[in-house]
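Let's practice the habit of predicting before peeking. Look at the sequence and jot down your guess about where helices and strands might fall. Then scroll down.
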Amino acid sequence: MINFEKKTLANGLTVIVHPDNSSPLVAINIVYNVGSKDEDPDKTGFAHLFEHLMFGGSVNIPSYDEPLQMVGGDNNAFTNNDLTNYYITLPKENIETAFWLESDRMLSLAFSPKSLTVQKNVVIEEFNQRYLNQPYGDVWLMLRPLAYKVHPYQWATIGKSVDHIKNATLDDVKKFFFSHYAPNNAILSVVGNVVAEEVFTLAEKWFGPIEHRPIKTRTLAEEPEQKKARRLSVNRDVPYSSIYMAFPMVGRKSRDYQVTDLISDILSNGKSSRLFVNCVQNRQLFSEINAFITGDIEPGLMVVTGRLTDGVTIETAEQALWDELQGMISSPPTEYELQKVKNRFESGIMFSEVTILSKAMNLGFYELLGDAEIINHEIEFYQKISIDDIVRVSKSLFKKEKCSTLLYLPELNSTNHA
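Done guessing? Here is the structure:
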């Protein structure tokens, strides 16, 4: 049980405090309710660009990292489809430095042409290195638009095209900042050896003067039901063929989200999982295999992937995957099989709540979902799932007409391992 206190400032900032005296450090986490799903389709990658711009100097503080390093602090950030998250860990006695830094960049960034140029170059380099210049790096640049036709999940967090970042102007980024970065669009969570009332006082002192801002109304196009299978085959300079199968699934707030998560675990979590035993260990069709959910707040994807071993045909490998997926219905998991993945989930949750930083992040995320108290009920949700739930959701999930399949093959003029 994670006990916490919560308060909302007059400007709309939600503040959550969980006292934890297990560490001399304090974790300060700010989650902004803006992700790549909030971008203009013609100006993508902005949420991720901001993750970098937020470290390029704010209106009153030219260097973010320097003062934090001087007081023994550490920081980082991440962006996904749904949110942007910034976090700091530092000694308890220096906590006010974190409030000073975070409040100033929430107030406004410096917005200098130099900072924009520097961070654009960093993101462009990341785009090239991670997505274009490494084997299988561009998978999500193709799989997302294959699986989504109207919803903004159709582009990766890095963006649709590197040109969208290259062409970003100061006016573009200012508009994006003031449309999404605001106290009334953020959740501040603090975990450590602190007193809640003292944290609320600091929050009021540093964040209270920042004005409530009008936030851009979120209007997300609803993805229509997929009624026909989709396929895309590409040839790249890679040694082995890979298959990526994406199935539309429910969003994070649906109770069937947890069921789908356990289905993915039964299929591929560990060396006793169905896909590993049957497709890797016994039949040796794949060298790597995985099934996972994208974990999105809006309706996301259940993805099954496999890298073929030498000499195995795409047809044989793909049929083997379908056999395993249909097996979730025709040969449901045993009570032992189901309980095993439930226990694994429970130990994962308990492990994720060991550190002050992970607790601060989790509290912020669950509050973004609707209520931080959900953090204390997740294990209960998973433990209630039955074999009937697994079969019911599998029947809905694993339909051929709902599958988007990407075949990632070696170039035709290279040694074809497919």
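How did you do? The chain has a mean pLDDT of 95.
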